[in-house]
Amino acid sequence: MLIAIWTLSLHLFAQNLTVSGTVKDTAGDLLIGVTVQVQGTSIGTVTDADGRFVLQNVPSSSSLEISYVGMQTVVMPVDGRTNLDIVLREDTEILDELVVIGYGTQRRREITGSVTNVSAENFNKGVARDAADLLQGKVAGLNITTPSGDVTVGSRIRLRGVSTLQNDQGPFVVIDGIPGGDLQTVAPQDIESISVLKDASSAAIYGSRSAGGVILITTKRGSGVRTMVSYDGYMAVSTLANKPDLLTADQWRAYARETERDASEFDRYNANTDWFDEITHAGITQNHGVSLSGGGSTNNYRASFNYLNREGVVRDNDLERFNFRFQLQQRAINDRLRIGLTGSATMGEWNEANKYNFVLAYNMLPVYPVKLDNGEWFDSRDYDQGNPVRNQTYNQDVRKNIHFYGAGDLSFTIFDGLDIKTTLYKDRHTEERSQYLHSETQAGRNDGGYALRENKIWDKTLMEWTLDYTTTFGASDRHRLNALAGYSWEENEYSFLKAANRNFTTDLLGANNLESGQGLRPNDVGSAKNMSRLISFFARAHYAYDERYMITATLRRDGSSKFGANHKWGIFPSVSAAWGISQESFMENVNWLNDLKFRVGYGVTGNQAGLDPYKTLQLYGTSGTYYDNGAWLTAYKISQNANPNLKWEETAMFNIGLDFFIFNERINGTIEWYDKRTKDMLYTYRVPTPPYLHSDMMANVGDMKNTGVELALNIEAIRTRDFNWNTSLTLAHNRNEITRMSNDVYTTSRIMVGDAWVRGGSGRTTHVIEEGYPVGQFYGPKYVGISDDGKYIFLNKEGQEVNSVTAEDYTYIGSAQPDLTYGWNNQFNFKSWDLSFFFRGTLGNKVLNMGRMTYGHPGYLIGANALNDPLIYQLKVVPEYSSLYVEDASHLRLDNFALGYTFNTNGVNWLDRARVYVTGQNLFVLTNYKGLDPEVDENRNNGLAPGVEDREYYPKARTFSVGISLTF
Q1: For the chain, percent helix, then strand, then coil, each to nearest 5?
Q2: CA nearest to 198, candidates 560, 654, 521
Q3: Sheet (strand 83-88) strand order
Q4: SS3 of residue 12 by DSSP
Q5: Which end of the chain has the lower number of beta carbons within 10 A, N or C?
Q6: H-helix or E-strand containing 566?
Q7: How many CA atoms lie within 13 A of 509 on its CB side?
Q8: Which residues pair with 631 in a beta bridge?
């Protein structure tokens, strides 16, 4: 027996070889750092400085997999050979890459819907808070705006226009297959790729939550080849990109002399103060990320930690965030069983800027000092005045959050091609707020000190099951079929608690001793809680024949507790088809065309984000007190009517697209047209009392449409051994229109929204929601000029020039919706150097310059400051909202510039890659807009009054950074 075992072991050992060789490109040059791995095992290595590799204990019947970035992967059988010379060809074939879609992946060549994928190498460079910053301007039709310079405020995201009147939340976010994710929980350095599902045929698999599109984020995973340690860090400095042109002290004094005003009452401190300079500074940002990844033949893992600390350009604005993430996958039972674990923890602390300090900085006179000569704070109690620096020094508004989630998934291959998978997910997000306004500051003096504590908790529990079947059949496996069926159960819970007080005898304890305040009011204590549940069944089938004819159909049935008793369940179908024209026989001799695909799709998606969980029910609310049996008791009354017919908003989209790859795939792009119709939009309408017990009611009434054209073009303009230039362009045009506002029960002719209030004038609305017009339609007086006696000249409804108008004379004076959004990106590589720059902008949109309207007039000079604007010499009346202040906001922005150098690490055996880089962001803006920035908050008034630069606008920053990336 011993002899037999010894003989057998010699035989087995003899089958294991030491295999060596070289790897070259087609030009005969040796390639360094190529991964060479024995398929199905953990045996692997990389080529050295001479392009050579050596592998020991290689089974003679195995195959080697040779892969390198930018080259086609080669699988070569060993066949008992001990020396192999391998040649890799450039990988210009991207049509066969897998693209993440809902609940799975598809080959790019066979995708039938409108899906755009952006990989890590194409992300925006520089300081990034989340995935939105990485994508800005990269996807045609995906409009990502930065609302202000506040580092604690996220980007606003819209895909193919506004599609609801209920606070459009933008696209639905899915992170590693988990629906309903939060962008803040994933550090940008951990993201591998991002897919955007743009049309309803792609997004319908997510049913009642996908009317705004879907963003799929895929994070980086570990590799089974070897252990890798990576570090990426940068330091950045931000300065104010643009500040208001206010009168300086000398200009203010000159104005007082020219207008024969007595300035002695104000100008007695010998001061020369730039209040915007005083409340701003150079903000420093640092980011550090470390990751560890690796694995074996049956497992992989990756863990990462990221630290971000950002200072805003305003002194009371900062953000500190810690992100930890780990992922582990283990395979067993001959790779039939796959178990995955994912954990994520995010901890943040931030200070939101008190934006009223901008109002103070506008109004405080430049001849006022920050402090008096004796060191005491200077202050003013005039209207809209006070010391903003004192506010920043003594007041606090600190928020902290902890966001943790864990996911476990188990997948089993029942037989080849059929997989069953279950996912369990638990998420908890807590946020607390601690605010204190010092009794001696402008913000807290009227209350004698004000303290507020808040606590919020979001809980989410999710369970999903999917069954996935893939097969090929027919001659040469030309027929490909994939079928998916799934079940999802999700529960969300939210709770809120707050307590406030005022009139404190001391400011020393801040918000940490609420009971010591003497000014408690009835609404200072509050709490709330709600819960909602979503249960779903979904299915998808995809069929492809010979890469020529593809069709995909999906169906999802959602049941939501948010909806009324008569509409708990909704069905969301879709179908799309594609024709691979270039695969037809009549295209065989068209050598310059690599791929041409025509797509068409139709689908229905829903929106329930704007609906609170209990809007369908009759609710009671407090209504004062009443006296009974010797005590004052709280009274209740009906605060909300029941509506059992409330349901989801429904968006149907028809999409046509043409994808093309030409000239050896050096030029590729997509042209798309879509028609997007939303019906049963939710809005709150006035109703008669009686028969109703409350005066307003939410109902499904309105309709809206968005139609548009998109173009995405990528050109590999130059491709040589040492120099490459790649340029890409995205263009998108969208037209939004409200098509219905009323029905037989709920009626309204128009809805006036927005607020153009200025001191000395009555509040007036700025926008109108009306049939035949887009969301964001400005509505007000038509400005003609200024008369010799300093009054506005307007046009009335008869077309006559008058000095004053009423609401009947208002007209349509522009739209906040752009005619065109665009982005232009360029990437250059020369040997070890890389350079990129990125422009983006808009054409045809309007912005209301509230800053000019509020501060660009002489009404309160010389007791308050004003903009250095010609209007302060021309106007003699209180400012009034009109088309004068609705300005063209078309612009071109150099949004990003990056220069990097990658070192040759061939002689350093412990270092694989080292790169240093510098970046610049928001470097300049070309525009005729007279305000601080033509890009403003799209979510103003819940998205119904966009395109306004408020009088409290936080100016944006210009940022420069230097960083290093290392891989060991």
Answers
A1: 10, 50, 40
A2: 654
A3: 52-59, 16-25, 83-88
A4: helix
A5: N
A6: none
A7: 15
A8: 628
Beta bridge partners of residue 625, listed in sequence order: 634
Strand ranges for 257-336 from DSSP E = 283-295, 299-311, 318-332
User: CA 767 to CA 753: how far, in whole Å?
Assistant: 5
DSSP state of 315: T
Q: In the block, which residue shows the tokens 């204990």?
A: 57
Residue type, 28: G
Strand ordering across the sheet containing 35-38: 44-46, 35-38, 63-67, 74-77
Sheet holding 750-753, edge to edge: 750-753, 767-770, 777-780, 811-815
Return phi, psi of residue 924, to 5°. -160, 160
pLDDT at position 90 is 60
In degrees and rounded to multiples of 5, residue 400 shows phi and psi of: -130, 145
Number of H helices, E strands in the chain: 9, 50
- Give the three-state DSSP class for 847: strand
Tokens of 772: 């035949």
Backbone angles phi, psi at 357, to 5 degrees: -65, -25
pTM (2 d.p.):
0.88
- Whether cis (ω within 30° of 0) applies to the bond prior to 774 is no
Tokens found for residue 441? 């500051």
Q: Distance (Å, rounded) from C-alpha 857 to C-alpha 376?
A: 32
Q: Which two tokens stand for residue 453?
A: 């504590």
**What pLDDT was estimated at residue 91?**
54
- CA 177-181-182 angle, to 5 degrees, is 145
Mean pLDDT by 10 residues, the chain (968 residues): 41 65 78 79 76 84 77 78 82 65 88 91 86 90 92 91 87 93 92 93 92 92 80 96 96 95 93 96 97 86 96 96 95 90 96 95 97 95 95 96 96 93 96 97 96 97 96 89 96 97 95 94 92 96 94 96 92 96 89 93 90 90 87 90 91 96 91 96 90 90 95 93 92 96 90 85 85 96 95 94 91 96 95 94 96 92 95 92 96 96 86 93 96 92 92 95 94
Q: What is the pLDDT of residue 224?
A: 62
Q: Does residue 675 contact residue 739 with C-beta atoms inside 8 Å?
A: no
Are 899 and 920 spatial neighbours (Cβ–Cβ below 8 Å)?
no
> In angstroms, rounded to a whole number, what is the distance separating the alpha carbons of residues 34 and 47?
5
Residue 42 has phi, psi (to 5 degrees) of -95, 5
List 290's β-bridge partners, or say none.
231, 305
**Which residues sit opposite 207 in a β-bridge?**
none
pLDDT at res. 94 = 55
Beta bridge partners of 157: 144
What's the CA gap between 605 and 172, in Å, rounded?
Answer: 11
pLDDT of residue 81: 85
Pairwise CA distance, residues 27 & 89, whole Å: 9
d(CA 645, CA 615): 11
pLDDT given for residue 4 in this prediction: 45
User: By CB neighbour count within 10 A (0-12 exposed, 13-18 middle, 19+ buried), where does 737 fall?
Assistant: middle
Give the integer Cα–Cα distance in Å for 98 and 89.
20
Q: Calculate Rg over the CA atoms of the chain.
A: 32
Determine if the peptide bond prior to 688 is cis (ω within 30°).
no
Is residue 536 within 8 Å of 556, Cβ to Cβ? yes
Question: How far from each other are the two terminal CA atoms of the chain, in whole angstroms?
Answer: 48
- pLDDT for 70: 58
Nearest-angstrom CA–CA distance, 390 and 194 = 44
**Which amino acid, residue 210?**
S
Show the tokens assigned to 154. Answer: 């996220």
Phi-psi group of 104: left, alpha or beta (phi > 0 → left; psi -120 to 50 → alpha; rest → beta): left
Q: Which residue's structure tokens are 């994508």?
A: 135
Does the bond joining 244 to the residue before it have cis omega, within 30 degrees of 0?
A: no
